Batch of 2 targets.
Target 1
Amino acid sequence: MTDYLVKALAYNGYVRAYAVDATSTVAEAQRRHDTWNTSSAALGRTMVGALMLGATLKGDDKLTVKVQGDGPAGQIVVDSNGQGDVKGYIDNPHISLPLNEAGKIDVRGAVGTQGFFTVIKDLGLKDPFSGQVPIVSGEIGEDFTYYLAVSEQTPSAVGVSVLVDTDDTIKTAGGFMIQMMPGVTDEVIDTIEARLNETARISNLLDEGQTPEEILQNLLATDDINFLEKMPVQFKCDSSKEKFAKAIITLGADEIQAMIDEDHGAEAVCRFCGDKYEYSEADLEVLKQAALGEA
Ligand SMILES: [Zn+2]
């Protein structure tokens, strides 16, 4: 089944909510980067959060989420946009830690608890918007929540979860983001918070066969839900041989000549999707001429 995200309004518009099934999307990232279970969960949770944050943008706008903690995972970088596209990587894809005390994947152990959580939004304006907060949890969901509260002044509850199978493949991945709009009553907040506390992780609900719509209905504890949009989400990288060629040209003619003389070609690997792009000596000769033309 295709992954998708739903957007909804509840309680007369005082509560905005998103839920996403990103199972195939995170599974593709796992295959492309050969992530082991703890890395899979850390990267997957960041991708799920970035998808929901991206869903708040308009079509062509895009954002980058960077999680830079002091744990063995290193940096996690995820790009997403208003059209449900997401791509990302984790510096160290091969982390497999013992389960934590709660019997869950130890994402905090991989990410670390010191460092920064940054969101950069490209809204088509001259300067991108950038917000940065310290990492407060390392479990990712709480870090999205803290970022939204502090940097965007939007009280939210964010849940992101990834269920990894024993062979490291992704069983399910998904999440929810519930945002309180100004004027929401304490009663509504209490009702939703109580429901959140008694609800299982989204990845388990997805594993039981629940849909994002059903998950939101349950989390929001009301029938007063207006589903606004259902948007497909997918792993998508826009890298290409042409784009990397432009980067090679900026290295300059001398550097390109060295690639021809020493390596008789070049290979570029996209960090986001792992695709490889090969450049023959003839390709490089063309790029060298372009570099000379730009000099
Ligand atoms: Zn790529």
Target 2
Amino acid sequence: MSHQERIRVAIIGAGVVGLTFAVALNALDKDRKIAIDLYEAAPELAEIGAGINVWPRSWEILKQIGLGDALIPLFDHHPDLEPRVIFGVRKGDQKDGFKIHDVTNYGGALRIHRADLQKSLMEHLPLPDSTVADIKTLCTLHLSYRLLDYTQTTNTGSSGGSGPLTLHFAGKPSAVCDILIGADGIKSTVRQLFLSRLPNPQTYERFLQPVWSGLVAYRGLVAKEDLQKALPGHRALTHSGLMYSGKSRYAVVYPVSGGKFINVVAIVHDKSKDTNVWEGPWKVDVPQTELFEQYAGWDEEIQALISCIKEPTKWALQSLDNLDVFAKGRVFLMGDSAHAMLPHLGAGATVGIEDAYILASLLTHPSTSRPLSTQHVNLLTNIYNTVRVPPAIAMSKSSNETGYFCNLEASGFEGYMEGDDIPMNLLVGAAHAVERNWSWTTSDPEEDRQRAVTLLESPRAVL
Ligand SMILES: Cc1cc2nc3c(=O)[nH]c(=O)nc-3n(C[C@H](O)[C@H](O)[C@H](O)COP(=O)(O)OP(=O)(O)OC[C@H]3O[C@@H](n4cnc5c(N)ncnc54)[C@H](O)[C@@H]3O)c2cc1C
Ligand SMILES: *[C@@H]1O[C@H](CO)[C@@H](O)[C@H](O)[C@H]1NC(C)=O
Ligand SMILES: *[C@@H]1O[C@H](CO)[C@@H](O)[C@H](O)[C@H]1NC(C)=O
């Protein structure tokens, strides 16, 4: 198909979700009818971050879009659906911590260094010079393009219009697209513009900015040799994953980069500030002493891990307050832009990867072609809202609930202070609740995709 006839999809943001969407479109674009412009504000596609959990459910999607062979060697174990321990949960807020329960699912968590995942996605972008991508979709990457605004060309005569969108960037020429994807993260510019243009913008004011949860996360990577020196035979050296649970704080620990590093995420409920607005930068470098102070009196295994994190970073944990519309007109939000959630379930990117896969399936479906009629665009946005909003909200809520169990702040724990003895049945009950909340990780994403495609093929129900 000639370039002029292709559906012009503009993606704002080349994070994990924007990249996954571009790769998914190319993988599914059998009719070669899509042209992507991928706009990223940063001057380069940096490979950043620490560890990330990929679940069997997301693995199915990553395989479907062609990343299987590239990712297998980068996981901590070969993907399968055997029963595996996700986290050995321990009571951590006392000198001699002890085992509570092994939280298990089918297939475990596929742990990967975020930089490795991002690098594989970048290699599979259908850019003309790619050596691995089987190119069906045309793709152009525009770095240092920060979106400021979008406007709609009226081609119907009605106010507001329904035609293609014009994108406006800081210090760069503007551009036109048929479909606009906001994959620009928790602070999303696209979301802010999109919500302010809904018929009832005042209803959506509280979704313009994320809400601070009162929690912060300290993150760091520990080299295996360092930990072996700090505490020979440390449990984390050989364990698939651990969670040290305590009052108002907990830490999760798991291997990444084939076991070379151990990823540490230490979460603290900061009760000193009574506000839901975080002031200042969201991610700051902090001195190691701050982390030691936060976990003073905890198990020596935690102390040893902290001693190996010379340069911890602190992240403010923020989320959106369960936005209930992700698409309208020609604009679609995905990933953190639509549903930034708290990290207690390790599910934020997972849900974004599903958004990407399902929308890519709808846009590459034979019934979607240029020129896009208003009716077809409305059908796509209705289906996307129908199939993506409920699971994203459920996962956000579930993640929040899971946090209270990890933090020993769920109901039943009110009377206990940091370091207290807590009845074992209460502790095990909390770990079981966490385990139940991880059962979704092995469900089949094809069912959701099939449901979306069925709605497109027989749309009565959604219109
Ligand atoms: C402590 C912690 C642990 C986590 N662990 C997990 C886990 O184990 N598993 C999991 O699934 N998820 C996890 N998450 C969540 C996950 O990190 C996010 O959900 C995911 O990274 C979101 O990806 P994204 O592509 O939507 O957004 P981002 O990664 O934020 O990407 C957005 C991109 O858009 C660009 N951009 C922004 N504004 C503009 C603009 N105006 N114009 C152009 N470009 C723009 C940015 O530069 C950026 O590159 C965790 C999160 C935290 C904080
Ligand atoms: C749950 O969400 C609310 C609202 O954002 C927040 O105040 C609270 O701290 C969250 N709880 C946990 C454990 O993350
Ligand atoms: C998570 O657990 C809570 C409390 O046990 C429950 O209300 C919620 O439905 C669970 N969520 C999932 C996705 O299992």
